Amino acid sequence: MSVELPEAMILAEQLNNTIVGKKIKACEMKDYEKLQKLTFFNKDIKEFDRLLDCSVKSIHQRGNVIRIQMNKKMNLVLGPDYGASILYHTSEETLPKKHHLKIQFTDKSYLTIRQTGMGLIYSAADNEVDSLYVVKRDFSDTPSPIGEQEFTVEKFKEMLSAKNQNIKASLVGKTAIVVGLSNAAFQEIIFKARIHPKRNTSSFSESDIHNVYDAMKDILNARICSGGKDNWTNLYGEAGRHTPVMGSNMKDKDCPECGAKIEMIAHGGGQVFFCPHCQK
Predict the structure, then answer these.
(1) What's the CA gap between 30 and 36, in Å, rounded?
(2) pLDDT for 136-169, tens place per residue?
(3) Closest Cα to residue 264, out of 176, 173, 253?
């Protein structure tokens, strides 16, 4: 279950409202050996000791990445890209049995993080943050599809025109012209825009460009307003309320628009569900 831009924005706001000003008393790492091989996690576990006695100053988020900035020139950087459980606990009684990182604050509250897919949990000094891959990827000149006024439909058109590639490559991955999206958002966006997942952006009409832009804005804002996807839980353990209009949840179902059988293809490193009748 991926954590995309809407969920990262929700988490960042909740962290800002909850842990800013708190001081770290203890850090505990568990079951991290396998994680070090599969994802970005400090190879030297002692580097997490640098967070001890640090106080949280501010929360910064862009794309899928959350930077928890502290005093003493330290940071905890989270990139829950392919799934993570990030939870706040007011008491020890609610702590989960499993975690990769558990932070105890001096007021006896806790933050636990368990990565369920590829991503990042990293303790980094101020002079180390900018060298992290996910920070360079998301805290970059690549625009965010929501939350930035300068990302207009004209800007979107200009960036699409500069690329001659598949629409998925334009929205997801290393060659994407926006940050924070993965396969889940992609499937919803192109369904709402009535675009086939294998369409090349060079074939887009003016109407196609506007439809993708508007669909992207609508889908992402709807997810934020609904508290995230319905298979995701926020900082307080509350499930989101947004049910995707297209995605793996539509397997073996009919299109809600035309009634055609939903199809699935392997495309761009993942499974893409789409309506063969509505999406051309």
Answers:
(1) 11
(2) 999 999 999 999 999 999 999 999 999 889 999 9
(3) 253
Fold of the CATH domain 153-236+243-274: Helicase, Ruva Protein; domain 3 (1.10.8)
> Residue 272 is encoded by which pair of tokens?
């893409």
Sheet of strand 110-115: strand arrangement: 24-29, 101-105, 110-115, 84-89
pTM of the model: 0.95
Both structure tokens of 83: 């799934």
Structure token pair of residue 153 = 């439909």
| pLDDT tens-digit map of 60-82 | 999 999 999 999 999 999 999 88
For the chain, give every domain's residue range.
5-138, 153-236+243-274
With beta carbons less than 8 A apart as the criterion, state whether 107 and 22 touch.
yes
Assigned token pair, 105: 């604050």
Which one, of 122, 123, 94, lies nearest residue 108 by Cα? 94
The CATH class that applies to domain 5-138 reads alpha beta
